[in-house]
Amino acid sequence: MIPSRLLASVLILAAPAAFAFDFKSVGPAPVILYDTPTTKGAKLYIAPRGMPLQVVIGYGDWVKVRDMSGELAWTEAKGLVARRNVVVSTPGAKVFAEPDDSSPVLMTADKGVVLELVDPSTIAWVRVRHRDGILGYVRSNDVWGL
Question: Which residues form the signal peptide (predicted)?
């Protein structure tokens, strides 16, 4: 019999992994988001190429996803890719040369700009790439999709 303290410790340590967010990005073609997991459902809107979406649950060939605004919808799983992107969630987010506010600013990104997630290794900063090739660091609280 496993001592109850040991079992409780294992469950507590395993909990964060069970609640980790699963993010995917819209693939090379835009996807339609529906209110139900069928093409016969009401079309809510079209998600553009590269847009990050949080996968809430899978249901056969369909996934229920959440977008940056918190809206829930269904889309076909085949339209999503594993490559991670983030979207700028604050107006005028600065992309720095290094993960430091005093380093040179490489660009300023408007709210809604999609950036490729290159390295999410730190809590405060993430390394990103703009589609124009600019590679730098943005504060993790300035983007959505982590």
Answer: 1-20
